Structures are given as C-alpha cells and as structure tokens.
Amino acid sequence: MRVAVVDIGTNSTRLLVADVEGEGVRELDRRTTVTRLGEGLEASGRLSDDAMARVSDALAAYRERIDELGAERVVAVATSAMRDAANGPDFRADIEGRFGIDARTISGDEEARLTFLGATAGRDADGAALVIDIGGGSTEYVTGRPGADPDFHVSTQMGSVRHTERHLHTDPPTAAELSALGEDARATVEADVPAQLRERVESGIAVAGTATSLAAIDQELDPYDPDKVHGYRLSLGSCERLVAKLGDLTVAQRRELTGLHPDRAPSIVAGAGILLESMRAFGLAEIEISETDILHGAALTAALK
Fold first, then answer.
1. Number of domains in the chain
2. For the chain, which terminal residue's Cβ has fewer other Cβ atoms within 10 angstroms, N or C?
3. Residue that is last in its domain, among 108, 142, 169
4. Is 20 within a domain?
5. Quick check: is 302 in a domain?
C-alpha cells in the first residue's frame, strides 16, 4: 500500500510517502521543514499566527506532492505543541478544511508506541532497547524488545524548543544557563523513568532531528547524507564534546556549522543537552542514531487498517 504520513511536530513538519509491505517501508519521498510551531508556546499557551502560517505553507507543498505520488492513504499526527496549545483544536480543524488532512492529535503514549515501532521494525529482539525521541516540546522514552509492544513508555514535558525558551536566554548561553538546563533534563529523566528500568536497558536508539543533526555534525557531513547518519553510533564522549562546542557558539555561528541545518541552530543546544543527560541517566556509553521513527511507525500502522 502507498501511504503518506505527515508529522506536525513542535519544531518541524515532516512528510513521508512510502510503499509499505509487511514490515518493509520503501521510501518514495521524505521531506522536513523547520516550522517552529511551538515558538512562544511556553510563555503564551497559544500557537502564534506566524507559526501556524509556516506550517500551512509546508502542508500546501506536501499536499501537492502526496497527490503527485498517488498515495492511497493519508494519515497525519500532531504531537506536543498541538496537544498543549489552547488554540490547537481550531488549527487542527483549519488544516482539515484547507488541505483535507485530518491531523489527529495523538497522546504521548501513542506517540511513544509509533516511534518505538518505527525505530525497531525489522531488528532482532536482542535485549531491552531504549528509544529516545527528542522533540521540540516533549521527549519520549520507550523501552521494550524489538518486534513487540513497548513494556514502558513516558512522554515528558521536555523538548529542544521548550527548554531553549525555559533556560537559554543569552547568546551564546552562559555556563549557569547550560548547567540549569542539564540539571533540569537529568532530574526529569530520573523522576519519570524508574531507576530499575534504566538499569535494565542494554542499548539505545535516538531518533528525530536533534539526534540526526548531532550525527551529521560529528561527521561534518556536507551535504547531509541519511545513509551515513542512519546507524551512526554517537559515543558519550562525542556527545559531551558537541554540547560544549555548540554551547560556545552564537546562533549565527551555529547556522554556519557544517552538518547542521541553519533552521535548527536556535534549538540544537537544548536538544543536545537533553540527549547527553539521557545517555548519562541510562548509563549508555554510546547511542545509535536512526532515520526511522514515528513516520515509519505511523506508515506501518496505516497499512494494516
């Protein structure tokens, strides 16, 4: 079945069009637009007009591509920003009316299940695996054995955009701001994921834009190469070095950094800090970076309906 999946996230709006057969997902087109839907949400509790306009522009282009490729089924998921915003339901209705896309606002639990499915599909069920999905407004931690439903999942109120707005107020951020960010991130993981579960995890997989960006920066990829990012193993030491490096740069300097999309420059420091503290909390010496995530999980699920 040819399936189109749209993911309306807090920091980016993404599209996957793929042919799905069994556990196989053959990508036909995949696009990411940094739309920053959650910009200002932490302070106002609402989606801004500018942010909604950016998402609408991306969806107009995506709708055209979906029709060109003849997708048999179109599904859309909206995550943290749409869940949290007071005007989220109104924007969701506007999207359906204008583009014929039913952007289903999913729970954190459903987001975790789809992400785990997408990240682990086709893998050997060898030990307890952790999947970390750092979004703009929330971070999901999901554990289980590949090929089975997760045995634990939690969606935390912690994300690259949310924590940039919460902690990083100077450019570049001060040492005190970076320290406060790290302490907040570590405390969140330790509070929301039981210690015995963290100790049981044998391997980790990180998905979404923060993780893939760090893999590209670490390899100095220009242009971005998904084949070199997917499966890349980022060590704890490399992650520590990247957090220090990124934290020393201004936003303008980060925009020029090889491997980093310029639109991710404002939020990458907070995202990297969250990943670092997550690795420390789970005792992971390295983490595997994956290009497959909630988009693939949603595509697999849609093909079964």
1. 2
2. C
3. 108
4. yes
5. no
- pTM comes to 0.84
The token duo for 276 is 């670092």
> Token pair of 248, please?
């020393």
21 forms beta bridges with 24
Asked if 229 and 206 touch (Cβ cutoff 8 Å), the reply is no
Residue range of the domain that includes 184 = 124-290
Tokens of 197: 């579960």
In a domain, 303, yes or no: no
Instruction: Read off the pLDDT of residues 24-60 as tens digits, 9 standing for 90 and up.
Output: 889 999 999 999 999 999 899 999 999 999 999 999 9
Type of residue found at 41 = L
Question: 189-238, pLDDT tens digit by residue?
Answer: 999 999 999 999 999 999 999 999 999 999 999 999 999 999 999 999 99
Helices (H), the chain: 41-44, 49-69, 80-84, 88-99, 108-120, 160-167, 175-192, 195-200, 209-219, 226-229, 236-247, 251-255, 268-282, 294-304
Residue 278 Cα distances to 164, 195, 203, 208, 239, angstroms: 17, 13, 13, 15, 11
Are 224 and 216 contacting, i.e. CB atoms less than 8 angstroms apart? yes
- Cβ-in-10-Å burial (0-12, 13-18, 19+) of 127 comes to exposed
